[in-house]
Amino acid sequence: MTDMASPDSNVRKDGFAKRHGRGLTGLLLVAAPVILLGWLIIYPIFNAVARTLFVNSDAGASFSLDTYQRFFTDSYSLANLWLTLWVTVVCAALLMAICLPLALYLRFAKSRIAAVVQGLALFPMFVPSVILAYALIRTIGPNGGVDLVLNAIGLPKINSPYLTPWGPVIGLVWDNIPLTTLMLVAGLGGVSDNAVEAARDAGARHVALLRHIILPQIGNAMLVVLSFTVLSIFSAFTLPYVLGPASPEMMGPFMQRTFSQVQDTRMAVTQAVITFVICAGFGAFYVRSIAKNREARQ
Amino acid sequence: MTAIDHATTSHAPHVPVHKTKQTDWLGLGITGVLGLVVVVPLIVVAIWAFAEVWRYPSLLPQKFGLRFWNDTLSRPDVWGAMFLSIRLSLTVTMLSALICLPAAYAFARLDFPGRNVLFLSFLASHAFPKFGLLVAIAGIFLNLGLISTFWGVVLIQLVGTLMMMIWIPVAAFQNVDRAMEDAARDAGAGPLRVFWSVSLPQAAPTIFAAVLLSFVGTFYETEGAWLIGAPEIRTMPVLMITFINNQIVVQYGAVLSVLLWVPSFFALMFTRRLVGSASFAKGFGV
């Protein structure tokens, strides 16, 4: 989106002294948010790791893995972790299945209906998760809107996903459709109409077109989407808390309960560090992708 | 705005169009399914908000009315939460604008050591699972006595707005027409005057969208308020979760949803162009 390296003619024209002054001004202008970033994002991460690895006792700090050992030997904690991983995999698969066709349609459609589809696909971005959670309970919860309609046409009620793992899955997929679609459409921007037309003229079928022309082009975008999904599901709190089962629970509500109700700060922070480690690979890929993107523009 | 406008229109067809006369059945089908999935849950909530009696097998409420609007709006906790949420969102958005907009200008237009690394680190701050980060911060706030205080929640929500309030305005400042600035400078305008009369007005619409998105995002922010603010600081979304969990009266939640829906409707109106553009997705590293 931004090319920081665009040669700034103003800076170039200025003399050395002025440039020096500008450097200082620039640093001063960015100081406040940078300090905030350092204090409330970078420091807490290191603090969390240090706090969970070292125990303070009278004899001074000593290295200990006790909370991690407790987490990985406790069947309840492990069940929560597995549930979160399961929800992540299911959500990622569903999001791809829903958003890839949607993005392909938006990229290649030339009718006016495409604008309506885009509007609808972006719409969930403006619905806060609290309202979404409530709306889903009223719609697919027991005796909700769907049950009413099914009953009216003489069909049996649905097996409500409310308070089962499928509750958060449905909510999280709904919530993530806009960003996933946006990213995939942006990725598809690299596929040229000419390439597609040429392949079509050469007799390529839809499947072949998708496999050989389109998918190789958007591989990176798909991986970014995947990273984003993993990160957002491991951070999800509201939807799993309201729509999900009480036991086992997903990592978000689990951490919150450990912190606020059990009041075991060290254990809660340990759980947080475990989510950091699981997401680290995806996070690193995401950062690398941003950096590469920006280099490409320079 | 220019880059954003470009981005939205760059997909315009360059290839000879031979489909426009045909009905786009696929598009209509997708519209139907998406409409069903996206809009119906919200319609159900809207009906609930105006239902006085709605017992199970009936397809529509037995009795419509505004009774529960009166009931909801006469609850002191609703007003308390509403004013608190507005106060929080205003404080956070103003602080965020105050510290982020100058920084965005610097990132976009000034040259200083570490510029690229620092800018990248803002974008990279999204590479951590947010809730785990909140728990880590909460552990620190616990020692500082910031848990369950107004300013603790302000700080946590301020961090949440940083990225958006920096990268959208950076794009806005970069797209300012340099020729116009040079012309103003040649005409004898000082740097502040150029910034105020030339650069800022051009960047203003995008910046306004970013400020609005931050305000609405802060208003709906639930996780930080819940984790750091509990039990003293009860914002609107937190109150809403309590209503959902306790299920006292179904309509309370519905009325609150419709009320809460108002700010996001405005956000939708003003920022759709920005959010729908490809440059928005670029911010996420696609």
From TrEMBL, chain A:
Localization: Cell membrane
Any one of the GO BP annotations: transmembrane transport
Keywords: Cell membrane, Membrane, Transmembrane, Transmembrane helix, Transport
Membrane-protein topology: Multi-pass membrane protein
Chief location category: membrane
Keyword Transit peptide tagged: no
UniProt cross-references to Gene3D superfamilies, sorted A to Z: MetI-like (1.10.3720.10)
SUPFAM superfamilies in the cross-refs: MetI-like
Domain ABC transmembrane type-1, chain residue ranges per copy: 81-286
GO CC annotations on file: plasma membrane
Transmembrane spans: 21-46, 81-106, 113-137, 169-191, 221-243, 268-287
Family: Belongs to the binding-protein-dependent transport system permease family. CysTW subfamily.
PANTHER family: INNER MEMBRANE ABC TRANSPORTER PERMEASE PROTEIN YDCU-RELATED (PTHR42929:SF1), INNER MEMBRANE ABC TRANSPORTER PERMEASE PROTEIN YDCU-RELATED-RELATED (PTHR42929)
Protein known as: ABC-type spermidine/putrescine transport system, permease component I
Taxonomic lineage from the root: Bacteria, Pseudomonadati, Pseudomonadota, Alphaproteobacteria, Rhodobacterales
UniProtKB/TrEMBL annotation, chain B:
Pfam name, any one: BPD_transp_1
Cellular compartment(s): Cell inner membrane; Cell membrane
SUPFAM superfamilies for the chain: MetI-like
GO CC field: plasma membrane
Major site of localization recorded for this protein: membrane
Domain ABC transmembrane type-1 stretches: 82-267
GO biological process terms held by the UniProt record: transmembrane transport
Taxonomic superkingdom: Bacteria
Topology versus the membrane: Multi-pass membrane protein
InterPro entries per the UniProt record, alphabetical: MetI-like, MetI-like_sf
Annotated TM spans: 25-51, 78-105, 117-144, 150-173, 194-216, 249-270
UniProt entry tagged with the keyword Cell inner membrane: yes
Keywords in alphabetical order: Cell inner membrane, Cell membrane, Membrane, Transmembrane, Transmembrane helix, Transport
Family to which the UniProt record says this protein belongs: Belongs to the binding-protein-dependent transport system permease family.
Record protein name field: Putative spermidine/putrescine transport system permease protein
Species: Celeribacter neptunius
